[in-house]
Amino acid sequence: xxxxxxxVLLCGxxxxxxxxxxxxxxxxxxxxxxxxxxxxxxxxxxDTEYFVFTDAVxxxxxxxxxxxxxxxxxxxxxxxxxxDGFFSYDALNDFYGIVRRKKIFGRVLDFDCYxxxxxxxxxAGEFKAACIAQNFAGATLPIYENVYAKVFRTFDECRLQxxxxxxxxxxxxxxxxxxxxxxxxxxxxxxxxFVRKNSPLESWLQTSQKxxxxxxxxxxxxxxxxxxxxxxxxxxxxxxxxxHKDAKLSAPKGYKIIHAGHAxxxxxxxxxxxxxxDNISCLNIFLDEITALYWIWRNTTxxxxxxxxxxxxxxxxxxxxxxxAKDILSAAEIVKLLREYxxxxxTEMVSDRNQRELMIMSTGSPELVAAAEEIVRKHxxxxxxxxxxxxxxxxxxxxxxxYGIHVTRRNVLDAYxxxxxxxxLDATEEMSAVTVDGKKLDEMPHVYSRMMSFFAxxxxxxxxxxxxxxxxxxxxxxxxxx
Length: 482
Prior knowledge:
Rossmann fold; 3 domains; seven-stranded mixed sheet; 16 helices; 24 strands
């Protein structure tokens, strides 16, 4: 990260100043004395950022005799408060003004903990941002819960969330700023950044505006606040209706019907199959709709994607009494919801039996369930040992997101599938060799061969337990005509 080198007009002895600030980098662009202090304010507007006094008495006299200027300070204050980026309270007030003017009252990620470094202990009005505590040690103090709506411990905790804007304020070279844009790319389409006057970043933005959809600049103390709107692809919703029979349904806008297990199917109903491109269609006998999920992950580029079933479809109607195709959750509703939430799932299923017992009830085979649980847990431990606590909690719990039904943004889908298939395919291969009374699973009725799909169905809940996502649950409309 670039070193912030503030530009200082010094009133006093430079050797004394250097002793006070230690090894803090600084550029002394000019020197003056107390008799000339009245003219220093004009100088501050053009060539420098801070007016620093080495003598406490002279600084007190300055404050008493001249108009207030927050960029005038003692050497002691400068040493402790001016750290890794430009800061002034006037610039902060301008920031809040932009927030109000642009109506950015939703979710803002203060990536560099700018607000915490301002010394304020509460948020300004209705605006509350989130921050990443590891970017500023002071932000971990409990009082900053008043400044921030959410304090993330690490960047990884918020990497799958969506924000209305990302706030970048640290001193960055153009290359470092570009890296920050890449690192936070999926988090927001808007960047609110402080651009220091006469900095390389200022020059770069002036010549690079065409890479953004819109650039709004607001002059402030020491530079500009810039609101950058990134060029984003239009929303492309692709929710797949998974079927293994004639679905007898016209797919609404934003939906597609996919035949899961098409490679093994005896009949072709004219729908797209999950056996093209990179696929695991031949494993459908063990994994059911999960083969369609794999195909969606590996062969599509939708900005918003997910799956539902031919007999079970999400709806925004609070209490659907019967199936009506017009009430299927629309593509427009999906895009809107996924700006506020990170994933849409069906309402959690509550049972009076835990998940292990439910699977035993479905198969009638405690031995088979025990074998599958041991295999899944072994492979999960091999690649994602930190998820074992969540796995155990779900298997021993009474609530989960059933059917594997979910819709989300592309980066969330990619993260989930990367996690899931890192262990599930190896577990499925091992499970396929298990025999019951001398028969392999693919030689037995589907209620047995699909043993891995029962566990795979519960993996969404396991993954969600360990990731910091905002989940929106919706009811399901059930079809009984197919």
